[in-house]
Amino acid sequence: MARVVVDVMLKPEILDPQGKAVQGALPRLGFEGVREVRQGKRFELEVDGEVTEERLAQLHEIAEKLLSNPVIEDFEVHVS
């Protein structure tokens, strides 16, 4: 069994209101020096067997078709 992590983030040109809200709250809470905050999603998938090239391609397809919106989001697949 292997664990695969899919990180999904808004594309840089897409406005991130949640990230801006967190960024605005940090100084009010006494935290300085954070230039930008972007909010994203993380998915952890446990898959049977080894992660072969074929399985990895399938996981990329899952990330593209189900876990992200490729119009406004980018994703990365990491095998843990």
From TrEMBL:
Catalytic activity: N(2)-formyl-N(1)-(5-phospho-beta-D-ribosyl)glycinamide + L-glutamine + ATP + H2O = 2-formamido-N(1)-(5-O-phospho-beta-D-ribosyl)acetamidine + L-glutamate + ADP + phosphate + H(+)
UniProt record, GO biological process: 'de novo' IMP biosynthetic process
EC numbers for this chain: 6.3.5.3
Keyword Secreted assigned: no
InterPro entries: PurS
Gene Ontology cellular-component terms listed: cytoplasm
Similarity comment text for this entry: Belongs to the PurS family.
Protein name: Phosphoribosylformylglycinamidine synthase subunit PurS
Taxonomic lineage of the native organism: Bacteria, Bacillati, Actinomycetota, Actinomycetes, Propionibacteriales
